[in-house]
Write a structure and sequence with these properties.
This protein has 484 residues and is mainly β. It contains two helices and 34 strands. The longest helix has 6 residues.
């Protein structure tokens, strides 16, 4: 069918079949990046959760492996994390090291049916043994108690586990990675909340760019109350002492990791070598209000392009910035200089071959009372406007496929205030059914799925100008299929 042929991305991770959502267990070991993910192998809508598994040496070409974790008599396998137990704290790896995977066990004893399980692997994730004493963290009596994120905290010499508990994050500690003690809560009255539980926490230390200082960043998913509506991801900047997270920003401050509709359940890879030093993240590229209805059948959902995160000082304070992984640069083929000039009340159409994915990189300058209208797909437009010295980006997404839930929730129209007028550098990654836009040195990220009833048939990028606009060093790179 049309959707199967044209909507499956060329350069983004998708399941071989079935349903995909949250990335799980992101870990690097012995030259391999492991990507586990929430997987329903028997249908293309959400259902009994397994852990799918793939590995890569470059974060772009992935090898699918057999299912890592499957439901058992205790329940199904919700989201979680994986880490390398280098010092054999757990006792599972005498004389060597191995992988630990923590996941939420969800059974039938509602309402308190979520607890944390543990599995371990001696062979780099090819086979897993579930811990006989599961659950390692029993439910303390909460309706929502899931998505464990575990890491080793060197300063306090302890394993740390974060678990979502409704509208808060619970922090646990352990010396042996098996016996856990509650330490603290974070989240009440901080950041964005909705009527549903927070999800998929991550916590890591990161350097401030061009500084010797570091901060801790806590990432949390919001199911329905995001910036653009629907699902989204927020973050907090602060300090972590091994016991509690202390935010720097006021409680009412909301920092969005992405401003689009399709960037959720963000997780970062653990155990990346110090010599590399990057903090690499990936997200589920979908949105819960319509995730089960996107127009594919044998498979459903994709991951974002992996991104390198950095912490930068800005006029608004410290902010996380995004960059597509440097490995993507090596896949950019046949760069073409499309345009490098000032425009005045004109329009253009740049013809591309949409059989391949494209990366567009350029800088943009707008005079006051000027606008640039950018249409990378027939159903998606970005409009940059400067009015009285202030920059605004308007994002509009259309699309009707005749499925009520999709047609109701998928379209959107929202604006982002970008602050004082200034030149913008733009990095736009276009795949068959998605657009990932990074602005202003990656300080703003806008991720959107794009589906049209006819399929991605458009062959050009439309550019319209009102007022005075300069487009500089506009290059188009062709990206060949790396998922084959």
């Amino acid at each position: 069918m049309l959707a199967e042929k044209y909507y499956r991305p060329l350069v983004h991770f998708t399941p071989p079949y079935g349903w995909l959502n949250d990335p799980n267990g992101l870990v690097y070991k012995d030259g391999e990046y492991h990507l586990f993910y929430q997987f329903h192998p028997f249908d293309s809508v959400w259902g009994p959760m397994h852990w799918g598994h793939a590995v890569s040496t470059d974060l772009l070409s992935w090898t699918h492996l057999p299912i890592a974790l499957a439901p058992d008599k205790l329940g199904v396998c919700f989201s979680g994390t994986a880490v390398v137990d280098r010092s054999n704290h757990s006792g599972f790896f005498a004389g060597t090291e191995g992988l630990l995977a923590y996941y939420t066990i969800t059974g039938d004893n509602a309402p308190f049916n979520q607890s944390q399980g543990l599995a371990y692997s001696h062979d780099n994730g090819r086979h897993w043994t579930k811990y006989a004493g599961n659950p390692v963290v029993a439910n303390p009596g909460l309706e929502d108690f899931r998505d464990p994120k575990v890491f080793w905290h060197e300063l306090s010499q302890a394993w740390i586990m974060l678990v979502t508990t409704g509208q808060q994050i619970a922090i646990y500690r352990s010396s042996d990675a098996i016996s856990w003690q509650f330490s603290s809560f974070f989240g009440e009255n901080y950041g964005a909340h909705d009527e549903r539980a927070w999800e998929c926490p991550d916590l890591f230390e990161i350097n401030i760019r061009d500084s010797q200082e570091t901060r801790w960043v806590l990432i949390v998913g919001v199911q329905r109350g995001a910036y653009a509506g629907g699902s989204g991801t927020q973050y907090f900047i602060g300090h972590f002492d091994g016991e509690k997270f202390i935010p720097e920003n006021p409680p009412e401050t909301v920092l969005w990791l992405d401003y689009g509709r399709d960037f959720y359940a963000t997780q970062t890879w653990s155990d990346i070598p110090t010599a590399d030093g990057r903090r690499i993240a990936i997200s589920w590229m979908s949105c819960w209000p319509y995730a089960n209805q996107i127009p594919t059948q044998s498979w459903r959902s994709a991951m974002t392009m992996p991104q390198e995160l950095s912490l930068k000082k800005t006029t608004d304070g410290l902010r996380l910035c995004h960059a597509f992984i440097r490995e993507l640069n090596e896949r950019c083929r046949n760069p073409v200089l499309v345009v490098d000039k000032a425009l005045d009340r004109s329009g253009m159409a740049f013809v591309f071959d949409w059989s391949a994915a494209n990366r567009l990189q350029f800088s943009l300058e707008l005079a006051d009372n000027s606008s640039l209208f950018l249409q990378p797909f027939s159903d998606l437009t970005f409009t940059f406007t400067v009015l009285q010295g202030r920059l605004t980006l308007r994002c509009q997404r259309l699309g009707q496929i005749g499925v009520a839930e999709y047609d109701e929730h998928f379209p959107h129209d929202f604006s982002i205030a970008l602050g004082d007028n200034r030149p913008l550098n733009i990095d736009l990654l276009l795949d068959r059914s998605s657009a990932e836009l990074l602005l202003d040195d990656g300080q703003y990220s806008i991720t959107n799925l794009v589906f049209s009833k006819e399929g991605p048939v458009q062959k050009c990028l439309a550019v319209l100008v009102s007022g005075e606009v300069a487009i500089r060093n506009f290059h188009r790179h062709e990206l060949h299929n790396v998922m084959a």
